[in-house]
Amino acid sequence: MVTAKEKLEGFIDKLESLGYEIEPVSKKPQVYRIDGELVNIRSRSRIDQRTRGRRLWYSVSFSVLQEVKWIIYLTTDSDHFIMLRSRFLDNLRDRMLPDSKNAGVGVFDIDWDNQFIVIKDGKLEPIEEYYYDLSDPRYYPSF
Fold first, then answer.
1. Do 34 and 98 contact (CB within 8 A), yes or no?
2. Which has fewest Cβ within 10 Å: 85, 88, 109, 122?
3. Which residues make Cβ contacts (< 8 Å) with residue 120, sequence separation at least 6?
4. pTM of the predicted model, to two decimals?
């Protein structure tokens, strides 16, 4: 199984090979400057075993939303991801579950097979328009 760190490194390497300019800004949280924009990159390595398909839980620190323009969530490999504007997630803040261990952090699931964010009470927020694929030039991101 590929670790979250290996996925992140593969993602950064792939972006650089495609000509994106990348500069690390901070390790915790993982913030990078990509083509001049501040981006927080999140990764998970374990699929939620309670569900079918590729469904992973993610979190976002609300303080990071004030610092960056984009949040990237990597899927089960380094080529596929969603890239959300920080204000999109900020608008969902009240509908996320609170992280029981960290104040100021919201938790949600991403259903990668159906391209939804799963928030409080199982409500679904579509994200297919935010899905990107580094193996297909038609789905490369713009920063």
1. no
2. 122
3. 95, 96, 97
4. 0.88
Residue 110: CB atoms within 10 Å: 25
| Backbone φ, ψ for residue 135 (5° rounding) | -95, 0
Residue 24 within any structural domain of the chain: yes
111 close to 118: Cβ distance less than 8 angstroms: yes
Please provide the size of the chain in residues. 143
* Residue-level pLDDT at 46: 56
Q: What is the per-residue burial (b if ≥16 Cβ within 10 Å, else e) of 69-102?
A: ebbbbbbbebbbbbbbebebbeebeeebbeeeee
Query: Which structural domain, as residue segments, surrounds residue 90?
Result: 4-138
Calculate what percentage of the chain has a pLDDT beyond 70. Answer: 92
CA dihedral of residues 32, 37, 38, 43 (deg, nearest 10): -60
48 found inside a domain: yes
Here the CATH number for the domain that contains residue 56 is 3.40.1350
Q: How many domains does the chain have?
A: 1
Residue 143 lies in a domain: no
Cα 77-114-116 angle, rounded to 5 deg: 90
